[in-house]
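Folding problem:
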Amino acid sequence: SQLISNGIDAYIFAYDIAYDICYCNERIVEAFDLMSYKVMNASREFRRYIHPDDSERFFAGVRAFISQQSNTLTGDYKFLSSSRGEIHLRALGMSDASYDGNPNGDPQLVTGCFTDITSFIEDESIRNNLIEGSSAITFYADMKHEKVVFSENIHEILPDVNTEVSGAVVETVSEHINP
C-alpha cells in the first residue's frame, strides 16, 4: 500500500486512534520534513503543522468526526510546510465506524487524503484582485467548471446580470449581448 500511496498526487494517511500513530505517504513526509512514515504521538506532532488561523476549526472537525457527529472528515485548511511555507489542503477522511466499516462502533482507524489546493487558492486571490482592482469590466472563465465571473462594474451597462454565471456559460452570456 505504501507503493500505491506514493504514486498518487495527494497526501495519504492512515491514523490509528487508539495508539495515536499516523502512517503517512512520502508526500507528507517531505512536505513536513518528518523523520519517518510512522508518526508516534501524531495528535501532538501534527498540531505544529496546522496554521494557527485554522487550528481550532480543524480540531473541532476532527473531534466531531471521531465522535461520529460527522461521517466524513472534510474541509479546506491551511498548513505550514517546512519546504513550501503556507499550503492549502483539502481534507477527505473516513473511519472504520462509517457507513461501510464498523457501524455503531467506535472508530479505531481513520484513513484519507489531503489534496493540495494551494495553486487554486493563490490563483483565485489573483483573479479577485484583478477583477475588483480595475475600472474596466473584467471577467475570468473557468471552462472546466463551466463558470464565468464578471467584475461588479458590469452592472453599469447590464444592471440585471449576475456577476457569476454557471452552467451553459456561452448561451447564458450571449443572451445578454445585443448583435
User: Anything to note?
Assistant: The mean pLDDT is 79.
